[in-house]
Amino acid sequence: MTGPKRPKETMGKVGEFGFIERIRKTLKEDGSSVVLGVGDDAAILRPTAGQELIFTTDMLVEGKHFDLKTITPWQLGAKTMAVNVSDCAAMGAKPTAVVVSLGVPKDFPVKDLEAFYDGMKGWGESYGARIVGGDTVGSDQFVVNVALIGEVEKGRALRRSGAKAGEALFVTGTLGDSAAGLHSLQHPDPKGKDAATLLVKRHLTPTPRFNVGRYLSSKRLASSAIDVSDGLSSEIHHLCEGSGIGAEIHEEALPLSDSLLHYCEAKDLDPLGFALDGGEDYELLFTVPLTRISEAVRNLPGETGTSVRSIGRMVPKAKGVTLITRKGQRVPLKPKGFDHFSD
Amino acid sequence: MTGPKRPKETMGKVGEFGFIERIRKTLKEDGSSVVLGVGDDAAILRPTAGQELIFTTDMLVEGKHFDLKTITPWQLGAKTMAVNVSDCAAMGAKPTAVVVSLGVPKDFPVKDLEAFYDGMKGWGESYGARIVGGDTVGSDQFVVNVALIGEVEKGRALRRSGAKAGEALFVTGTLGDSAAGLHSLQHPDPKGKDAATLLVKRHLTPTPRFNVGRYLSSKRLASSAIDVSDGLSSEIHHLCEGSGIGAEIHEEALPLSDSLLHYCEAKDLDPLGFALDGGEDYELLFTVPLTRISEAVRNLPGETGTSVRSIGRMVPKAKGVTLITRKGQRVPLKPKGFDHFSD
Asked: Which residues does residue B143 pair with via DSSP β-bridges, in sequence order?
């Protein structure tokens, strides 16, 4: 027996305050560091003594960063949180609280907005990130902004500026999967379909390397770190600029997943392009002093559940950023990561 | 002598990272609470011992919240900061750091974006709010999001939930000016033009009641507070819901500026509608226990440089929210403030 069909609820019908009231009921303070959550002019937080705060923000725009035809609202909520937790992980910090702003078209279904919040909340809480406030406004495109606060032991934050020539360059996990997943969403094709499943999953629900960031910070193991959001070829330049040095990366050391290799083989694509220039991997790129390389290689996988790979080393600034190919050629590595304004 | 005309720089030409580099140079750490500002995966802040944090966010969308035909980029930057500082003021807190996300159309002039930052920076620094990070992405509409962290002495934050029946209801400054200023921008007309000048100024560059919020918090003078961003008739309901009580407001006590009265007289409009339902006043609405009313009236103007007016009192919840008209009639006061999703 089915009841009468309910008219579809849209934001235009439920309204800003009606929606806030619904969301508010799902977000309760737990008496920890959150003194007051959603529902006032601002949230109130109690910082932990002796910790420094990290503060970061990310904006995602429909049609630029995501396509609601290929990502569900729940996945988008989870991914939005993951992107911010990844920034936090790259600082070696533990997320504590986020505020979420949404620009929402009037005809946007309320159930999709609730699913988005469920994704954010569920994914965020597994890393300790609580939603404590936000803003919901009308807009033509669906726009999401998250700002995140995290905590890190005083002086222990991982920066982009600490790397020194001679140190080893490491990366977590595998590179290029997310961009290949996006490619397969944009070029649907039976060829390479099995391999694409995992790549799409990596694209839609990335895993921030939270455990690795915390381990590197707590053991003072990394001299610098950055997360790979815009592609390795861009991020290595950011790290080198931050530290005032150069880098050499070995093509044959780049960690590529079996899925990426199978997908590229089936579709006759070059995996190297995805690995170097593909964005949204959300892996961590970090540098380790020579005396501690064996410690990093030995301990990180077991302690963090994440594979790590040494892909090169840091060199003096004058040497620039170089890729050493499989044939031993040295070619300058240009930043080709995603620029939202490039033509 | 004029040089050759330079091609207009747009975000499409300068690019995300080029723009970030320009902005970064204008934002230096001052060694206070900002350990690390713009340019890493996140900013690093050092919280003051014994303080609680407040955390808030606001999103502004072109065509919904502002029209770049009637507000300059500099003014928009200043207003964006003012809106967030106002939330902070309503908590009795002192702003410390903000992160700014911008969704920017590709053809947006870079000089306008720089003017926007100048407005934010200049206006923000006068309240102690430093820009420590952000995100710049492409979008079809110009979208601005600011997230703000502030500090307040432990347990001293002003909430919406502390008001009690019998207490006096106060408001700072004057009400309805901003909405009348917006009206005059949308209905250009020589009539009432002189009066409109000040109203437009109030609309474009509102002054957050920072000093009042800090004074109320430091003296424990207010039992509750909220900022009037969506219009008095909405905000009084938020305050009453937060505190589980009702309120009576006297029409004749509402503080109306001479400019508002002149403008409405010249254009045959009702000032009451602007004062009750007009948004973006960014005044503070707060409650004061009976025993401290004279202290509030006597000290606030001199100590904070801001006029305050008692406009009514809080009553038991069952009595609801009532407006007592000039003729002594009691009418229910319905929330009619701005809902971005209403038709």
From this structure: B61, B103
